[in-house]
Amino acid sequence: MALKTKTAEAHWTSGITRYCRRFGYLQGMRRSLKLMNLINIGVASGLWLLCVSVWAQTAAPVAAPASPRSETAKSARFEDSMAERTRACTACHGDQGRAGPDGYYPRLAGKPAGYLHNQLRNFAQGRRHYELMTRLIDPLSDEYMAEMARYFAALSLPYPPPSASNAISPERLARGQQWVTQGDAARGLPACTQCHGVRLTGVQPHVPGLLGLPLDYLNAQLGAWQTGQRKAHAPDCMAEVVKRIPPEDLIAISSWLARQPLPADTQAAARPPAGPALPAALRCGSAPELPVATKGTP
User: Fold this and answer.
1) CA–CA dist 99, 214 (Å, integer)
2) Which of 57, 90, 184, 223 is most open to solvent, judged by the fewest CB atoms within 10 Å of its CB?
3) Who contacts 245 (Cβ-Cβ below 8 Å, separation ≥6)?
4) Domain assignment present for 193
């Protein structure tokens, strides 16, 4: 019985991973009806993993005590832990949330808990659009999503070396580095490091790091902000930032970031870096910890 159950779980995990890979962020709008039915099967299985502990608490008591053999079988089928319940997440986002292999499913492990929680809320509330994600988290409470976010945030796992190899000139890479480290005063934009930390590993509790992300994912997300497909809590600072950056420079930025190795300390900074406050037009509704200039501030 245990072997049969493990085989079924392995089949489900393999299946939902195939669906996740096929429906990358840039392909999500082309789902066929047949594959949507397959996704529904995967979603139903994922919801079972996410919610089984809740169901267990409310289930009617059995008439007779379970035998030792049946208890062993239950234990073999399912361990009531967050690691087990989030297998619906790691099927696409990689083992322990290390990132999916196809470049479109980002790392979850070690990201600030507030940022992860905000993204789950964004999918649940329609600011981000990816139907598989939306269906998986639709039955979950905000408190449970926060618990999931804290679980992934607490994982400290090594990063792989950068692997970006797209064709781009040294001059354009230098332009990308300039945007990241200096910004563009003429366009009223600070350096990326002013919000995402000097080491670009993020700032607690809501600002994500920019290193260790696949080039395809960076391009997809910058493009989604550019077209309005991705949004954040208002005021949406990233939407305003991307609006002011020329499209050719967005590619330069993502190409430079995707080539950078992680520093020895990959943890998000405890507080924003010292420096001038953000202009009022770039106030970030999803990251209130970032200082913003008040009226009359030079």
Assistant:
1) 9
2) 57
3) 179, 184, 187, 189, 253
4) yes
Asked, for residue 231, whether it belongs to a domain, the answer is: yes
Q: Per-residue pLDDT tens for 242-281?
A: 999 999 999 999 999 999 999 999 999 999 998 889 999 9
**pLDDT (tens digit per residue) in 38-53:** 444 444 445 444 444 4
What element of type H or E holds 93?
helix 87-93
Is 49 inside a domain boundary? no
Total domain count, the chain: 1
Among candidate residues 298, 250, 251, 257, the one with its CA nearest the CA of residue 276: 298
Euclidean distance between CA atoms 146 and 160, whole angstroms: 27
Dist CA 248 CA 261 (whole Å)? 23
CA distances, 46 to each of 39, 182, 202, 224 (Å): 10, 43, 30, 26
- pTM, two decimals, is 0.75
Residues 6+ apart with CB under 8 A from 62: none
Radius of gyration, alpha carbons of the chain: 21
Cα–Cα distance, 124 to 254 (Å, whole number): 27
| Strand, coil or helix: 276 | coil
DSSP symbols for 208-226? EP-SS--HHHHHHHHHHHH
